[in-house]
């Protein structure tokens, strides 16, 4: 009886072990499948209602010079390597500071600053190299962590941007000069909260960056850019945006692409990393605007047809009654309803969805009211 009981217990135990093992394997298999189905894009960390910056009523902008040349490091670790890049007659030597080279994620700060300046340019306002920003707004707008860790990382980004030195003859603003500069001349905390978090930051951009803004040598970026998790994904998108633009496609050799990306990997490893991104994009369609294809040693970048977000439906935007009174004050003597029709047509063509529609419309009135072409109120 005792032997039979022990035998039955062992059988039950083995059966339980097998069942658990099978279930575990099945569970792991499901988890693996779910991982493959998960989008490579970073989640949107903040709800659109919290986007308080005017830059989100317009498109994101990046300067075309640093999109063309590999100024920023693709490494997530401190990069202390001096690099020199040449493309025809243009060259740039990038030298690290004490915290290492500025990374492609540090570039978020410059994109934010350039976008703010371009909004001011489009509004007809004077612009300056010196910007005063709310640190929280910058973190929210660039889809960064807004916890204490996020503020610490923001400080480190400013240090790398200011510490990285660039010697170059790359032309910006129509000026061909040899120059040595930092991407940011200065960054300082103007206010700091009691718990040590930045509240306001003053940034002084370099002449090189500011000249690109003044000459409007900037390109519009997809807002999903801030959701791209891999440094190489961001760099590939920048190059596609620069070289493809509104063309159907652009071809480049894999070796040259590696150099333009600023990758420090071997060609074999770069091919593997590149192919991994291509495979992910085929599965998830996560790369904004452009697809990438490898044929032997040639890479083709293609514009994705229909990838742009649909234009916002104009009837869904309701302006407040008092907005029309403010519009008449900004554009005296003009038919504000004709201006409204022009504005709605413009945001539809530009695929813009303003978070603050009334404020965006009033800014449009201020600009458009300076020019003829609208019917006057009677």
Poorly predicted spans = 10-35, 48-58, 308-315, 371-378
Note the total helix count: 12
Helices and strands, in order, run as: HEHEEHEHHEEEEHEHEHHEEHHH
Tell me the number of strands: 12
Secondary structure: helix percent:
40-55%
Cα gyration radius (Å): 26 Å
Mean pLDDT: 79
Distance N to C terminus: 108 Å
**Helix-strand category:** alpha+beta
* Sheet with the most strands: spatial strand order: 2-3-5-6
What does this structure look like?
It is globular, with a radius of gyration of 26 Å. The strands form four sheets. It has a four-stranded antiparallel sheet with strand order 2-3-5-6. It is built from twelve helices and twelve strands. The chain has three domains: 186 residues, no CATH class; 81 residues, Arc Repressor Mutant, subunit A (Orthogonal Bundle); 55 residues, no CATH class. It is of the alpha+beta class.
Record the SSE blueprint:
Elements: H1 2-37, E1 60-63, H2 64-68, E2 83-87, E3 90-95, H3 107-122, E4 130-134, H4 135-141, H5 148-163, E5 165-168, E6 179-182, E7 184-192, E8 198-205, H6 207-214, E9 218-221, H7 231-243, E10 249-253, H8 254-261, H9 267-284, E11 290-295, E12 298-303, H10 321-330, H11 336-349, H12 357-368
Helix pairs in contact: 3-6, 10-12, 11-12
